[in-house]
Design goal:
By secondary structure, the chain is mainly alpha-helical. It has 3 helices and no strands. 15% of the residues are buried.
Length: 108
């Protein structure tokens, strides 16, 4: 198997579409996320906005990682592989972004 060359334009094919897709998924995910452990005086709309803003980086990171992985390891677009890559990368991206947010001391 050839090595993954991130400088190759072919590896980044479809990145714009993936960025838009994952941005939409992130916004929807943030909107349906339940509200827990917040200050009761904080308005509902502000809490939802913050939830969306906290999930959005994970979605964008997912798009940036998923695109080259998908183009290199699954060029034939087998659904099973795509779903495994998608779920693993989305989960790991969420964990990484959450760790960074917690490390910075940010909370909703």
């Amino acid at each position: 198997m050839k090595s993954l060359d991130l400088r190759s334009p072919a590896v980044w094919k479809g990145l714009k579409k993936e960025l838009v897709t994952w941005a939409v998924v992130s916004v929807l995910s943030g909107l349906i996320q339940p509200i827990t452990d917040t200050n009761p005086e904080t308005p509902f709309g502000i809490v939802k906005l913050l939830q969306v803003l906290f999930v959005l980086p994970a979605g964008l990171l997912t798009a940036v990682v998923y695109t080259p992985v998908q183009n290199h390891f699954n060029p034939e677009r087998q659904l099973g592989r795509s779903l495994v890559f998608m779920l693993l990368i989305w989960t790991i991206s969420g964990i990484v972004v959450n760790a960074v947010i917690k490390g910075l001391g940010l909370t909703i």
